[in-house]
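Anyone up for a design puzzle?
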């Protein structure tokens, strides 16, 4: 299938990044969010990112301007009635996502592919909320989207080969590297990464070391570019908690029990970088 128009649902840190790379690759992009402030913030982040790229000489001013002109923001979900591909990037919550997929199934044309950027939730279950399970697929971008090369492509139980091929091609047009994985909780990336982050939080919770010490050990000792607690703040502590809960419930194994300190921070509204406070403080 020839994809020309893409709608991104959710203009948060991931949705804005996905919209940016899609527009830079030449697609017509609709960016939707149910929250007007998030929509404005998402668009501002994209234009600032593009301006930075111009400053660094990575793209010309004309390319930045034409890419930006390909992005239309909307709070009307019915604009999805004209697109070939939807990439959903709303909060990591199954009820919110399934409701959205059911709505999108009614709004979008029969050929439209519905992709989710979920970090951990079952694609097969999202697909079951629609009447087109063969056209539902996971497209898991990494954060920050404009920088990171990987896209995990997750096949649901019913995802067709044609749909898989189309999404693999779109990923390559975005200058990303697709890696095929099957539909199990956390896929590959977060099944491996998130228990490591959760364990790092436990080491702070149990007083084994300070947060700075834990981050320093993993940076200098394991050559990680950033420590796990800094990374958790970057991802968003709410997203980390949702993912741990998905792993815990999905496998029914207590080794995935979210650390109580993570729960406490999320309940306090300490969501990391995006809220200004997480394990560390940020001046947003
Ligand atoms: P975020 O909190 O920054 O943004 C979520 C956005 O969704 C918000 O702007 C919110 O207003 C909007 N939203 C919520 N409900 C909506 C609805 N019903 N309709 C339209 N918009 C709605 O979250 P994020 O970090 O961008 O994460 C988004 C998705 O991407 C999640 O599924 C997350 O697991 C996944 N993801 C996150 C990361 C990461 O590092 N943060 C990495 C890969 C994938």
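Challenge accepted. My sequence:
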């Amino acid at each position: 299938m020839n994809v020309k128009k893409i709608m991104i649902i959710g203009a948060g840190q991931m949705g804005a990044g996905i919209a940016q790379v899609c527009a830079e690759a030449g697609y017509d992009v609709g960016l939707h969010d149910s929250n007007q402030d998030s929509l404005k913030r998402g668009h501002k982040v994209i234009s600032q990112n593009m301006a930075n790229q111009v400053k660094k000489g990575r793209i010309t001013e004309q390319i930045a301007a034409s890419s930006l002109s390909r992005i239309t923001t909307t709070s009307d979900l019915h604009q999805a009635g004209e697109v070939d591909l939807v990439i959903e990037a709303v909060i990591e919550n199954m009820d919110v996502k399934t409701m959205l997929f059911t709505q999108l199934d009614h709004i979008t044309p029969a050929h439209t592919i519905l992709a989710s950027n979920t970090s951990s939730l079952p694609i097969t279950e999202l697909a079951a909320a629609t009447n087109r399970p063969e056209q539902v697929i996971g497209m898991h971008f990494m954060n920050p989207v404009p920088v990171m090369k990987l896209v995990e492509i997750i096949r649901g139980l019913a995802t067709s080969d044609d749909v898989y091929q189309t999404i693999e091609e779109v990923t390559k047009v975005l200058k990303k590297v697709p890696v095929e994985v099957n539909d199990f909780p956390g896929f590959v990336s977060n099944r491996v990464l998130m228990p490591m982050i959760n364990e790092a939080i436990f080491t702070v919770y149990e007083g084994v070391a300070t947060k700075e010490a834990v981050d320093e050990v993993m940076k200098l000792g394991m050559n990680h570019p950033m420590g796990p607690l800094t990374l958790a703040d970057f991802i968003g502590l709410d997203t980390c908690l949702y993912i741990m809960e998905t792993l815990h419930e999905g496998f029914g194994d207590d080794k995935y029990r979210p650390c109580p300190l993570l729960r406490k921070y999320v309940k306090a509204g300490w969501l990391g970088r995006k809220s200004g406070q997480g394990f560390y403080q940020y001046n947003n």
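A detail worth pointing out: Residues 36-55 form the longest helix (20 residues).
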